[in-house]
């Protein structure tokens, strides 16, 4: 009996990992996003078909740091694992080296959208690049 309960529990957990996400939001949002035009370079068609960037929103913190929010959508019905990394550039287009320039692992359920947000490490950062890397688990 104990084994059957354990099996049923594991089955329920494994089935939950393969589900999609239902969401609800305002039909007429009151928030005004500051969407920016972006340039995309796609080198991994498989990742682009799975987790893809929908849009990029940009603002500044009260202290003058650049803040970026990227919406990502999983266009498939299955869980996708990926990592992302932000790179920051100064007003001359030079890369700002920071100890926080590491890849951050994430996952996204099927048909789910999620937001990744980053704040520039210095007010000298005036531009950015975000990289998505497929995680083949």
Overview of the molecule:
This protein is an alpha+beta fold. The chain has one domain: Immunoglobulin-like (Sandwich). Helix content is 15%, strand content 37%. The chain has helices at 2-16, 45-50; strands spanning 51-60, 66-74, 80-89, 95-96, 104-108, 113-119, 127-134. The longest helix is centred in the N-terminal third of the chain and has 15 residues, at 2-16. Residues 1-17 have low confidence and may be disordered.
Overview features:
137 residues, alpha+beta, Immunoglobulin-like, four-stranded antiparallel sheet, three-stranded antiparallel sheet, globular
Show the helix and strand layout.
Elements: H1 2-16, H2 45-50, E1 51-60, E2 66-74, E3 80-89, E4 95-96, E5 104-108, E6 113-119, E7 127-134
Antiparallel strand pairs: 1-2, 2-6, 3-4, 3-5, 3-7
Supply the CATH class.
Answer: Mainly Beta
CATH topological fold name: Immunoglobulin-like
Number of strands: 7
Secondary structure category: alpha+beta
Put the structure in a nutshell:
With 137 residues, this protein is α+β, with helices and mostly antiparallel strands.
């Amino acid at each position: 009996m104990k084994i059957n309960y354990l099996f049923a529990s594991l089955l329920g957990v494994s089935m939950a990992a393969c589900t999609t996400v239902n969401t609800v939001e305002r039909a007429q949002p009151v928030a005004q996003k500051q969407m920016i035009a972006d340039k995309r370079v796609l080198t991994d068609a498989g990742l682009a078909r799975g987790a893809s960037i929908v849009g990029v929103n940009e603002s500044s913190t009260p202290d003058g740091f650049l803040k970026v929010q990227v919406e990502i959508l999983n266009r498939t019905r299955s869980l996708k694992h990926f990592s992302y990394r932000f790179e920051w550039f100064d007003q001359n287009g030079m890369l700002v080296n920071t100890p926080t320039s590491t890849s951050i692992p994430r996952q996204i359920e099927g048909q789910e959208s999620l937001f990744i947000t980053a704040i520039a490490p210095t007010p000298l950062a005036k531009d950015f690049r975000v990289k998505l890397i497929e995680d083949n688990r």
